[in-house]
Specification:
It is built from 21 helices and 26 strands. The protein is an alpha+beta fold. The chain folds into five domains: about 90 residues, GIY-YIG endonuclease, CATH 3.40.1440.10; about 140 residues, no CATH class; about 120 residues, Nucleotidyltransferase, domain 5, CATH 3.30.420; about 170 residues, 2-Layer Sandwich (Nucleotidyltransferase, domain 5); about 140 residues, Gcn5-related N-acetyltransferase (GNAT) (Aminopeptidase). The strands form five sheets. Strands 13, 14, 15, 16, 24, 25 and 26 form a seven-stranded mixed sheet that branches. The protein has a seven-stranded mixed sheet with strand order 17-18-19-20-21-23-22, covered by helices on one side. Helix 16 links the parallel strand 20 and strand 21. It is elongated, with a radius of gyration of 33 Å. The chain starts with a helix and ends with a helix.
Length: about 700
């Protein structure tokens, strides 16, 4: 680190590009900066809640190289070129270049060819791309060959020793330019129409073909008319999949983005002349390196734009993007410099353009979901096989079809939140993801206590109500009223069907009841626990039983002490800034009776439209905790307290050790183990989801 300090001390305050190198001298990260000194130094300052991705980068950096340039634009160009050539480990990367192809039209030749290539050269040819699917491009070309039998031979075929039949057979596959059966002008017309097709000018092609077909019929040249008809039908067979139109006739690219643990998925709609002429799907890796999407969507989007348009062979007038990003003007200036016109980034918030953008994003989500089946962008891993391996490794009775993973995120102890992510059959089930805003550990760092709160709140939906909690008998209402009067609590309108009591040794030691405030809502009007049982968690059990009893709408609480605010908060209640109309009278009366100088807080527990949470109602086959033995032990206690038996493990980041309940030794799996990769992916997704929620809360607080 001392040598790095010396290097950093001599980094200039200039625009440029920096490169981090590892022990072997390999470049592991490339970045640009308007001030190299400030940017490079920022990586090596002590930071609270530093991401794992950044920690790993800093730990592995043994040398730093910089290149000074004259402007930030030059820095961007150099950065883009270096990322393309070096493909550093810690940068966000599109799949390797070998996956992309271009359509090439050799317009400088007398009889131009239409070919598929993997390289763009400065040879005067016309290029379209990059395109991600060779097979789809070949299908389109196969149809276009029927419409316009263009030359696709690499060399002119010599027919000196060929028979007339050989020549006729060859001419069926193209115009037969090698035997001069078509003029240059006729052939060029066909090539122009192919170029128009890939430029999106399909209306013009259809119009010209129909016009020529009518003329041929009028001239009674029915053979030519039939040929033109076949060409028109061939073109229309392709266009049936390209009938989506933009709101106007502009040429634009529309970008949809979806981030799934470990990768980002981009769908690019290419509109030319107002028509959707192509859709390309891309995968970006390095998004969540060992950490779970610590980069936000804007950073991912910027990386994609720089890498894609550096490769692009054609450029639109505008690019619709799903997220604004800080360097949009700079990147826009750079993209414009690659073509002969200005290219603008547009972030529509409403209207027809927003609908087109939403469609692209929906397609990105579908693409991401489909890619999950191939296991994270086609890496060949089998979810079913990984689950079977996990079952064997952990000695489970059943394959863990539903796995839930939990993580904690905070900023130096503030805005502490928890996350729950769900994998079913080895794949993410985002509809069942949940997050938790924690109350018990705010303004301090205590991940163990935080995970305890999260699991207690989650497991309450699975545990059975204790035998000592029950609905009172009608004859017991008088005794309940007497207890509530003595405790100075609300005893009006007692209804045995809305009350839960705790009975121990044939004595009532706890009371809680629901008092309706409207058709869909109730309040916890009277909550009492005998002083001898207040440390037994009896009050919590009564409130949880009342939640189960309510099941829909809203449930209000009026905690009269600061401790009770946190207590209710730990069970999923949230503070309300404004007192609802239906609770205003009650709130005023309680505030007047309260001995506190501060007005009482109104808290609410909101049920989903379908009642109790469907995700929380499902029992997992495996619980996974991000952490080590400490986190594992506290969740074991939560399971025992809830009287539940669910397989439980924790996954420690440093050595990827798996700790299992009841086992002293940890399990370490091979790095290429499908079971380990699945657990890591699950853990990283939990981290990403927690971090995203924590950032959202922080942003709301900052912009209040």
């Amino acid at each position: 680190m001392s040598s790095l300090k010396s290097i950093i001390a001599h980094v200039p305050h200039s625009p440029g590009v920096y490169r981090f190198l590892d022990q072997a001298g390999e470049v592991i990260y490339v970045g640009k900066a308007i001030d190299l000194k400030k940017r490079v130094s920022s990586y090596f300052r002590k930071q609270k809640n530093m991401s794992i991705r950044l920690q790993k980068l800093v730990e592995n950096t043994k040398d730093i190289e910089t290149t000074v340039v004259d402007s930030e634009l030059e820095a961007l160009i150099l950065e883009t070129n270096l990322i393309k050539s070096l493909r550093p480990k810690y940068n966000i990367l599109m799949k390797d270049d070998k996956n992309y192809v271009y359509l090439k039209v050799t317009i400088k030749e007398d009889y131009p060819r239409v070919v598929i290539t993997r390289r763009v050269e400065k040879d005067g040819a016309k290029y379209f791309g990059p395109k991600t699917s060779v097979s789809e491009l070949k299908k389109i070309l196969d149809v276009l060959k029927k419409a316009f039998p263009y030359r696709h031979c690499p060399l002119f075929i010599q027919f000196k020793d060929k028979t007339a039949r050989d020549v006729k057979d060859h001419k069926k596959r193209c115009f037969g330019t090698c035997v001069h059966s078509v003029s240059k002008d006729e052939y060029q017309q066909a090539i122009d129409q192919i170029i128009q097709f890939f430029e999106g000018k399909t209306d013009e092609i259809e119009k010209n073909l129909k016009k020529a077909m009518v003329a041929a019929v009028q001239d009674k040249n029915f053979e030519k008319a039939a040929l033109l008809r076949d060409r028109l039908q061939a073109i229309e067979s392709i266009l049936t999949t390209q009938r989506v139109s933009a709101p106007d006739q502009l040429s634009r690219d529309v970008i949809g983005l979806a981030v799934e643990g470990g990768a980002a998925y981009v769908v690019l709609f290419i509109f030319r002349e107002g028509k959707l002429v192509n859709q390309e799907n891309f995968v970006l890796k390095g998004v969540d390196f060992e950490s779970g999407a610590e980069l936000n969507d804007a950073e991912i989007l910027e990386s994609f734009l720089k890498q894609y348009y550096e490769k692009a062979a054609s450029f639109p007038k505008e690019i619709l993007i799903p997220e604004e990003f800080a360097n949009s003007d700079l990147v826009g200036e750079w993209v414009s410099s690659l073509t002969d016109h200005k290219v603008a980034f547009v972030f529509p918030k409403k209207g027809k353009n927003k609908k087109v953008l939403d469609l692209a994003e929906e397609n990105a989500k579908s693409f991401a979901k489909a890619s999950q089946i191939k296991w994270q962008a086609g890496e060949g891993l089998d979810p079913e096989g990984s689950l079977n391996e996990l079952k064997d490794v952990l000695k489970l009775k059943k394959i863990p079809r539903r796995m839930e993973c939990y993580d904690i995120s905070h900023l130096g102890g503030t805005e502490t939140v928890g996350s729950m992510v769900v994998f079913e059959k080895g794949l993410p089930k985002k509809a069942d993801y949940r997050h938790f805003k924690l109350r018990s550990v705010q303004e301090k760092i205590d991940d163990v206590k935080a995970i305890s709160e999260v699991l207690e709140r989650r497991l309450k939906y699975l545990k059975k109500s204790p035998d000592y909690l029950r609905k009172p008998k009608k004859k017991e209402l008088q005794a309940i009223e007497k207890i509530l009067k003595k405790a100075n609590l609300d005893f009006e309108d007692l209804n045995q069907h809305k009350i839960i009591i705790a009975e121990k040794k044939k004595k009532i030691v706890g009371i809680g009841r629901l008092k309706p405030v409207d058709e869909q809502s109730s309040e916890i009007a009277s909550l009492w626990v005998h002083e001898k049982h207040r440390k037994d968690g009896l009050g919590r059990e009564i409130v949880e039983a009342l939640i189960q009893k309510q099941r829909k709408g809203k449930l209000y609480a009026l905690p009269c002490r600061e401790k009770l605010i946190d207590w209710f908060g730990a069970m999923g209640f949230h503070e309300l800034k404004d007192v609802p109309k239906i609770m205003q009278n009650k709130h005023r009366m309680c505030t007047e009776k309260s001995c506190s100088a501060q007005p009482l807080i109104i808290m609410v527990y909101r049920f989903t439209k379908d009642g109790l949470d469907a995700s929380f109602s499902k029992k997992p086959g495996l619980l996974v905790i991000d952490g080590g033995k400490g986190q594992l032990a506290v969740v074991e206690k939560a399971l025992k307290k809830a009287k539940l038996k669910i397989p439980l493990i924790s996954l420690a980041k440093k050595e990827e050790e798996i700790f299992v309940t009841g086992q002293k030794k940890s399990i370490i799996l091979p790095p290429d183990s499908g079971a380990l990769l699945m657990l890591r992916r699950l853990r990283d997704e939990a981290h990403r989801f927690a971090l995203k929620y924590q950032r959202n809360l922080r942003s709301k607080r900052m912009f209040k």
